[in-house]
Each structure stands twice: as C-alpha cells, then as structure tokens.
Amino acid sequence: MPGPTGERNELHLRERGVFACITSESISIFTRLVTGALAAGNSVIANKVLHFLPGNDALDELLASDARIAGVAFSGTMERARRINRILAARESAIVPLIFENDALHRFATEQTCTYNTAALGGNVTLFTSKINLGLLNH
Questions:
Q1: Residue 44 carries which DSSP code?
Q2: Is pTM, for the whole model, over 0.70?
C-alpha cells in the first residue's frame, strides 16, 4: 500500500511450519486447533492420531522437544501447558509459540513487514531508484 511520502509498505503472512496439536479435550476444541493451523498453511502432527505412543507426558515431551516442530497448539490443564512451555523454552532454536486453548489463531502465521522509506529523498521514489542506478548512494 502506498504511503503519504512515497514509501511502499508490504505485509506478508506465511506459515510457520509443522505444528504439534496436543489436547485431551473435546473433539470440537481439537478440531479448532487443527483447523487454525491448517488454514494458515501449516502442517500438523496431532496427538489424537499418535494415540498408540505410550503416555501423554512422554508424547508432550517428544513433540515439543523436536527441532522440526515450529509451534505447539495445546488444550488441557494449566500444569501441562506450563510443562510444555518449559520444554519449548529449553530448546536452542528460534522462539517457538505455545498457543494455549482458544488463544488468538493468528499466531499460526508469521507476519513480515517491509517498508521502503523515501522521505529522506523528498518523497519521490523515482529519485531513490535513479540515485541507486547512478551509484550516488555509495558515498
């Protein structure tokens, strides 16, 4: 979208990656978590499909500690949410979001903004591009 001084502002949303959807709650809450992740373009690993793995706690740790997981959507007890959050915080990678219960679903996507500010050149974007082309901005 054009700005008042000639800059160009862009907003891009893109998926985060693979989300682990963990819940012991009702199927409607589980569906909401999975649908939100999929609608934002993410892949999903759901604990409901991995029911053959032993124990809820072991599954939480396995999914949350895996470096390929870009986020965790969780519905359950506060104690279990804290445990999952501690596992995510201990990872040595980028910060991984924990979306707890019906938290804002927009966190399944990542926002990127890019602003080209031409106010320093009098607000005319053609001056900016012409000076770059002439090599005048290298000094």
A1: E
A2: no
